[in-house]
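Ops channel
N.P.: pipeline sanity check, posting one input/output pair.
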């Protein structure tokens, strides 16, 4: 009886079928190494971003947006000429080479130039963190079908959450005891392990039946470097996803600037800032893990993609409204406002990573492979960073008007209405595309099969 109950609980938490465990484990491990490496690097980026003024931070956002467009278009050119295993490995290893260059620069540059090298690091990591994650989820949407993605993406995401949790704790515990270059070196090793996982997943996906379903699986995607941008501009569906991501980025940027101001007030030392950002990351990842284990799959399965995508607008509006109310309570102290913000930030990011991310990534399961690797990075990286710039502009207007947290709440209200409505529109569009897909383009796993489902997208033109 106890054994059956345990198996039932395991099946609810991890809805993985027989024959899928190997690839799910490798996929989760790949995401683990990516986020472990990134969360070793992230607190360094955040500390460098607030090392000067908030004005400098806004200009960094604008620079990051333009750099992200260049990177994603260049990646489109690489995708045109290589198969997926080679171009993913090349992209990740290019990031490793850049990190090695930063380590060398930190050792040889003068103190004056070190400040600018920190800004380069900030911009570079702000681009590559979204880029590497976008490429990973594009790969997942390419090797798993839509129905499998709805079941498995939350489970795969748990690997990333564990990596982020471990990375945050690593920095929290050791930030004052190890040099920065050691943190970066460990991250480079983690990224290389992720590359090895990609190779193993790709080989396990290259079965004869899968190759028959997707003949171009082991061949270069082809086309031109601008194909992704053109596909995005022609497709209302991709533009809708892009608008959703931009609204997400605007809300996240408003939270980010609120966090940056609170941390500047709380700690003036660079090492202290690193530790404080890492603590916020750690508690957020704990909340994310709990939601992924016990909530995400049930929301997507029982309530649908639309509800899952609409949760974040609701959390954003409620959080800023609560912050505005607390900040206006007579006699409230700064640490109390910071405590409310920390709870809001943890819930917002847990919802974003544990619920919205798996749901959002299933949206790309109904587009062709070329758009998973060419258009998706533009949507995920460039448009997200464009949302950052828009969010920084909104925050600057609010700051100039002296509206404070009440102004944030006023902006969040109409944003949440538009954002939530878009969530349900995207869910309906995804359903229509899934219904139009040729049944021969999707292979659902049988209980004894080792063949992952294809996810080639609709056979007709983009709508």
């Amino acid at each position: 009886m106890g054994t059956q109950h345990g198996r039932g609980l395991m099946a609810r938490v991890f809805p993985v079928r027989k024959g899928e465990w190997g690839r799910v484990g490798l996929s989760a491990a790949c995401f683990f190494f990516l986020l472990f490496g990134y969360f070793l690097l992230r607190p360094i980026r955040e500390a460098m971003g607030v090392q000067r003024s908030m004005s400098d931070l806004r200009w960094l956002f604008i620079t990051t947006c333009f750099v992200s467009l260049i990177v994603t278009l260049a990646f489109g050119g690489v995708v045109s000429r290589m198969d997926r295993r080679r171009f993913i490995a090349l992209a990740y290893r290019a990031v490793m080479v850049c990190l090695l260059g930063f380590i060398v620069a930190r050792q040889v540059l003068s103190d004056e130039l070190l400040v600018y090298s920190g800004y380069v690091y900030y911009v570079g990591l702000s681009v590559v963190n979204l880029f590497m994650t976008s490429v990973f989820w594009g790969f997942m949407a390419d090797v798993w079908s839509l129905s499998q993605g709805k079941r498995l993406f939350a489970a795969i995401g748990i690997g990333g959450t564990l990596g982020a949790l471990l990375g945050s704790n690593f920095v929290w515990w050791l930030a004052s005891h190890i040099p920065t270059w050691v943190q970066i070196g460990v991250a480079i090793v983690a990224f290389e392990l992720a590359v090895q996982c990609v190779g193993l997943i790709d080989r396990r996906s290259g079965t004869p039946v899968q190759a028959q379903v997707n003949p171009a699986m082991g061949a270069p995607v082809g086309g031109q470097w601008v194909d992704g941008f053109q596909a995005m501009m022609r497709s209302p569906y991709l533009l809708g996803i892009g608008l959703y991501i931009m609204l997400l980025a605007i809300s996240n940027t408003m939270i980010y600037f609120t966090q940056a101001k609170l941390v500047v007030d709380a700690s003036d030392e660079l090492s202290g800032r690193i530790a404080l950002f890492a603590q916020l990351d750690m508690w957020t990842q704990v909340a994310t893990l709990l939601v992924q284990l016990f909530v995400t799959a049930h929301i997507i399965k029982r309530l649908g993609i639309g509800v899952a995508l609409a949760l974040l607008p609701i959390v954003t509006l409620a959080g800023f409204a609560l912050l505005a109310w607390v900040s206006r309570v007579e006699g409230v102290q700064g640490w109390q406002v910071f405590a409310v913000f920390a709870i809001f930030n943890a819930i917002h990011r847990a919802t974003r990573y544990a619920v919205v991310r798996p749901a959002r990534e299933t949206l790309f399961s109904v587009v062709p492979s070329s758009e998973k690797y060419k258009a998706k990075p533009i949507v995920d990286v460039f448009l997200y960073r464009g949302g950052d710039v828009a969010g920084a502009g909104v925050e600057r207007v609010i700051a100039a008007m002296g509206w404070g947290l009440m102004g944030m709440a006023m902006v969040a209200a109409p944003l949440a209405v538009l954002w939530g409505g878009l969530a349900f529109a995207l869910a309906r569009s995804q359903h229509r595309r899934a219904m139009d897909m040729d049944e021969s383009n999707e292979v659902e796993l049988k209980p004894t099969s080792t063949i992952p489902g294809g996810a080639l997208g609709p056979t007709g033109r983009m709508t």
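N.P.: looks fine end to end. Confidence is low (pLDDT under 50) at residues 208-216, 439-463.
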